[in-house]
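TEACHING EXERCISE
Course module: macromolecular assemblies
Task: Read the component lines below, then compare them to the predicted structure of the full complex.
Student: A.B.
Group: 4
Components provided:
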Amino acid sequence: MMLQAAAFYILSAVAVLSAFMVVAAKNPVRAVLFLILAFFSVAGIFVILGAEFLAMILVIVYVGAVAVLFLFVVMMLDIDFAELKQGFLSYLPLGGLVALALAAMLALVGFTWTMSDTASGHLQAPMPADMTNVEALGAVLYDQYVLYFQLAGLILLVAMIGAITLTLRHRPGVRRQDVGKQVGRKRAEAVELVDVKRGEGIG
Amino acid sequence: MYDFVTQWGPVWGTVAVIGQILGFMVVLLLSLAFLLLMDRKVWAAVQMRKGPNVVGAFGLMQSFADFLKFVLKEIIVPAGADRPLFILAPLLTFALAFITWAVIPVAPGWVISDINVGILYVFAISSLGVYGIIIGGWASNSKYPFLGAMRSAAQMVSYEVSIGFVIVAILVMAGSMNLSTVVAAQGGGFWNWHVLSLDMLPWPAFAITIPLFVIFFVSALAETNRPPFDLPEAESELVAGYQVEYSSTPYLLFMIGEYLNIVLMCALMTVLFLGGWHAPLDFPPFTWIPPVFWFAIKVVFLFFMFAMVKALVPRYRYDQLMRLGWKVFLPTSLAAVALMGGFVVYANAG
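Instructor-supplied answer key:
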């Protein structure tokens, strides 16, 4: 138990510190790397909470895919962060207000969650004892809330198709490789034996 | 799994676990030294050369000589490089390559950490492997490494998707995410290995798993940046890709990490498809050979296949690589997951 508490405090401290560093870092690439560290420590907290499946998915999806793309974009763009930060003080009141509103909302959700009548039951047994993590999640997502799950998937599909149609551009005159055509080519169609007379050429 | 901490008390148990981990690391590194030599020997044999043959009998000590040479050289950090990240990148690659091995069962009960989501853990850590390359390429602050890092980021993310779907299909079939359980389900003879899975008959699961095995093998080549998908370090265009600015020990760490990832992919294929530690036939004399040797034999065989591919196949073009990943492997593996799900549901119901 002591070890668990120590791990929790270390991981949360790293998560909070690295989240702060994401904002404070001068170099955008380092900021993204700190973001990855924050993801990673949150995954560690999930493991401590007994949600190992969520932890692994967090690492696979956010660290392994989303953050790679972040990093990819940030490295490609030549952003000067010092320039971006010049208006820092003038934006501070507005930004602080947004942060305050966000914190208030989080506190609201947190307090209503812990104070509601059914919450203590949920907190003591977040999932049925006879199920593993994956089974419990699967039962909730695919049995209990299957319609909402499908609807969410449908919305994502629409968003994906929308993004593709917005960016897809058929350019004429681009020579594309047709692998099937290339592989299916016969010798007779590709090579021609010509008996060239001296000094005449084949033109 | 033998739990040292509960058996030996907190202090000696922890010492024992650390000893276990260090022992496993030493075994891995020593095997890697000879696998590296094997890689070069196979490559040489295909090209009708002799390969390394000077240090020790048949050049057996070549890797150790290389090791000494690497660690004795000066570490050079380019002037424009991001120093902390430049050093961090090879360390990251090295460490990530090792910690994945914690959940690989090499024999019954021989696994450092027998966690329930073992396969997801492997997948999660191997998806982090790309960071070593990206950070290294970026921190070098030089053109070729950066191009190599960019290529590798796109390539590894693309092929991870199809690897993920192959793993999901196998998980659905095995019904567990624990690697020891996945291996234990494949006992009794080579026809029960997941690559054939004739125990699923009359459901023709082998029609799915054999293509999946091929997809996994090819994706593993791409994921570990091996030829024919070694575009991140294509010598003819990018000199050595993300490793250009690296020398001495940092380079060595990169190389060990890279090769360890290759061996890991071989081990993963052994565990998921080739029955892990199980003997191909479940009676003597095959069962006289200890399980760990069967595991090693299968891994070495797959590594030999990796080496042969390197020697035989010319490098892909980048657009061909992307086409293969997204337009061929992804739909195929997605269809395989759906089909396999159907098989499992109806095989259980009927």
